[in-house]
Design goal:
alpha+beta, two-stranded antiparallel ribbon, 31% helix, 9-stranded mixed β-sheet, single chain, 13 strands, 452 residues, Rossmann fold
Amino acid sequence: MAAYQPTGPAYRQTGIIVTEHTFTVPLDHRQPDRAQIGLFAREVTAAAPAAAGRPWLLFLQGGPGFGALRPSGRESWLDRALDDFRVLLLDQRGTGRSTPADRHTLARLVTPQAQAGYLAHFRADSIAADAELIRRELAGDEPWSVLGQSFGGFAAVSYLSLAPGGIQEAFITGGLPSLAATADDVYRATYPIVAERNRRHYERYPQDADRARAVARYLATHQVLLPSGGQLTVPAFQALGRVLGTSTGSDTVHYLLEDAFHGDVLSDAFLARAAAELSFAEAPLYALLQEACYAQGAATRWAADRIQAEFPEFDPAAAVDGDIPLLFTGEMIYPWMFGTDPVLRPLRDAAEELATRGLAAALRRGPARGQPGAGRGGGLLRGHVRARRAIPAHRPGHPRAAALGDQRVPARRAAGEQRRGAEPADRAGPRRRLNRREPAQVSSCDQATGPG
C-alpha cells in the first residue's frame, strides 16, 4: 500500500508527537450511503525517528459515553505502549470531539422513538464497525492491535466477533462480556458484590454509618438542590456508591461524608462534590446506553431498578427509619435519574423507549457452526485467552504488564486463512473507503434518519 499521509494538525508534548485525525463514517453501517457522522482520533507516537513505522494499537476507552484519554506526554500505560506501538486514541461515536449525541443534538429528532432509533447506533457493534473502517484507511490490509479498557473491552470483543480479520491481537482490561448473559443476570450478580463493598467500607470507616444515615434522614425530609441544578434525593445519595468500585473509592466516600453538614444543614462543599460525582453532563450516553451494553435482541426494562427489589437491604427506609447502615448502590442506571439530572431530563422519554424496546442488533456472535467452540457457552474466546503477561515490563519502575492487560486474545481466522498483506478470507462486506472532512463539515443528527 502507499505510505499513509496524515492530514490533520500535529504537535509535540513531552516525549510524544500527537497528530489529529477526523473521519466520516455511516451512522448505520447497514446503510452506508445514508446519514453520516464524524469521528475524531489522536495518533500518538514516541518522539523518536523510528516510531512512525511502528505497528498500530487502537485504544478503546471505557464507558460507554466517554471520550478517549487526553494525553499529556508519556504517562501511565501510554508510556509503555509507545515502546512498541503508535497508539490511536479514538473518541468513540457520540463522545469527545466526535459528532455529539446529547440533549442539544437529539432535540433535533422530534420524537422519543426517533431519538431511541438514533441512539441504537451508538453501541459496541457500531463502534467495532467504525474501528474496522478506520483500520482500512490507516493500515490497509494489515491487521492492528486493540486495547479495550472496561467497556472498551466489550467493544473489542464485538470487534473480534464481527470482524476478526482486522485484529492482530487484543488486550482486554476489566471488560470481558458474556455472550449470553442478560442485564438481569448481570445485576443479580452485581448487587451482592456492591453489598460486600459497603460492608468493607463501614468496616474501615465505622463512623460513616451514622454520617450516611444522618444525610439520608435529612434528604428524606428536605428538598435539596445541587449546584448543577439537579435534585439530591435519598436514592441519588445512595448512587454516590458508584465510586466504591474504584481502588480509592472508599476513601472518596469517607472524605465526602466527614464534612457533610455545616450546623444543621448540608454544606456547600458536600453538595458541590456530590454534584460533580452525580452529574452526567460529561457523558450523557453513559446513562442512556449503560444497560443497553447487555441487550441483544431483548429489552432491559430498567434491569437495575427491577432487580434491586430482590435485594431489600438496599431499601433506604430501613436506615432512615431504623438503625441499620445505609447501603450505597453501584454503577447502575435508574429511571429516576432522568428526572433529577437536568442534563438527562430532556432525554427521559428516549431513555424509556430504549429500555422498553428490543434492540435487535447482535453485539457479539459466537463461532459459526463447525468452528471450535460452536454450541458451547463462551466459545468465541475459548482457547484464545491465556493468563500471561501481554507485554513484558522489562524496565525498572514500569508497571507490570497488567497496565496493558494480562489477557491476550489472538484474533480468530476462518479456514483458508490468507497470507498477511492479502484481503483476509473472513472479512465480510464490501471495502469502503472513509472520507476525511474538516469537523465543520461533519453532519450531525438533525440530518440523520432513524433505523430504516
